Amino acid sequence: MDPATALHAGISALQRGDAQAARAAFDAIDAAGRGTHQMRLLLAQACTILGDGPAAHRALDAVLAAEPTNLYALIMRGDLLAGRGDARAAVSWYQAALKQAPRARRLPADLLAMLRRAETAVARSGSVFETHLDQHMREDGIVPSTAGPRFTEALEILAGRAEVQLQQPTSFYYPGLPQRAFFERDEFAWAPALEGKATAIRTELEAVIADKGALTPYVTAEENRPAKRHPLLADPRWSALHLYRNGSPVSENVARFPATIAALDGLPIPHIAGRSPMVLFSALRPGTHIPPHHGMLNTRLICHLPLIVPAGCSLRVGNHKRAVEQGRMMIFDDTIEHEAWNESDGLRVVLLFEIWHPELGADERAALTSLYQAIGAYGATGEDQVSA
User: Fold this and answer.
1) How is the chain split into domains, by residue range?
2) CB-hemisphere CA count at 13 Å for 327?
3) Does this chain's domain 3-127 share its CATH topology with 182-377?
4) How many angstroms separate the CA atoms of 324 and 341, rounded?
5) Cα–Cα distances in angstroms (integers) from residue 351 to residues 37, 131, 195, in the given order
6) Structure confidence by residue, pLDDT tens digits, 351-364
7) Cα separation of 173 and 363, whole Å?
8) How far is CA 370 from the centre of its chain?
């Protein structure tokens, strides 16, 4: 029997439920050295129906050796392991298939059904696994929900409900700094005093933004640089009023905010020629979303002092989303992916400035200041339009 006829006979046998005849046909093709990956998948299917797991594994091994990302083979391998009660091993194969699936262009209906089944199996196994972990820890006297936010986030990542969120600065990475999304207000001795001046700062702000021309788009095009691909480029829905920009005071604005400038005196704000201080009011109009993005440098933290905050404003940094509360400082690492929302029908305005990362010593700050100034002298603009 020629290979084409044998293949047709094997497929017909499978369709009528005769796995033994199907296997014989496929084995004959393979023995003649005319086997294909598609045929070996069918052979694995026939062997599985017959309960010959080792033979099914061998057929799939041949496929995966040449095509490690073959979705059919990955899922069928998972099915074989699930069938013998090894759910943990099965899930690893299902997950491998699910990871590869988005890279495929068009998937046939039968494969889509297999992937949905694999997805369901992974979710079910994950639930069983979480229950197992919870019971085991409780037997050890550990209540997972009370072990702290870092432990909770670790469990969320382990369960696949959250992703690992790391610093990804767009311009410069300084190694060894902790991967923390938010820093707490009580870690900074100066924070309460600044919060106490929020009312005076807001009074100055309200007097100035009554002038409709005071706020200008936050994200703007830079001269002699490629156009930014940002959905809010030149969009007044995200606007700013700069007090210090690229290290220099905006004199006409500084003169109108004496209480604000005085409130910032003595804070650990970088002073870097051509780059810092950076101090501005960041305004989000109603219904505006600042999409996920990363900041330039992980040697600083971004500080928000919320001044005008209707209900419905929030900020996500990494895996942590917090409501914006009027007068309550928010301090975060903007090189970790972050985004912001104003889901209210009113304007949201925060005072935004940067401080040195608290893990940096005096010698490091001095060295970094020199480095950044050298970079600026080489021709970098220092323009930094990030951080919601």
Assistant:
1) 3-127, 182-377
2) 10
3) no
4) 10
5) 62, 45, 11
6) 999 999 999 999 99
7) 17
8) 32
- Amino acid identity of residue 352, one-letter, is L
Condensed to tens digits (0 to 9), the pLDDT of residues 261-311 reads 999 999 999 999 999 999 999 999 999 999 999 999 999 999 999 999 999
CATH fold of the domain at 182-377: Jelly Rolls (2.60.120)
Q: Letter for the amino acid at 354?
A: E
How many Å apart are CA 209 and CA 215, to the nearest integer? Answer: 7
CB proximity list for 299: less than 8 A, separation 6 or greater: 172, 174, 177, 356, 357, 360, 368
Residue from 45, 55, 52, 59 nearest 15 by CA: 45
Q: What digits encode the pLDDT tens for the residues 132-154?
A: 999 999 999 999 888 899 999 99
- For the domain 3-127, what is the CATH code? 1.25.40.10
Q: From CA 100, how far away is CA 172, in angstroms rounded?
A: 32
* Length of the chain as a residue count: 388
As given in the structure block, the two tokens for residue 261 are 């400038």
Gap between the Cα atoms of 287 and 115, Å rounded: 37
Instruction: Specify the residue for token string 């929030």.
Output: 314
d(C-alpha 197, C-alpha 181), whole Å: 26
Residue 154: other Cβ atoms inside 10 A: 15
Q: Is the distance from CB of 298 to CB of 357 less than 8 angstroms? A: yes
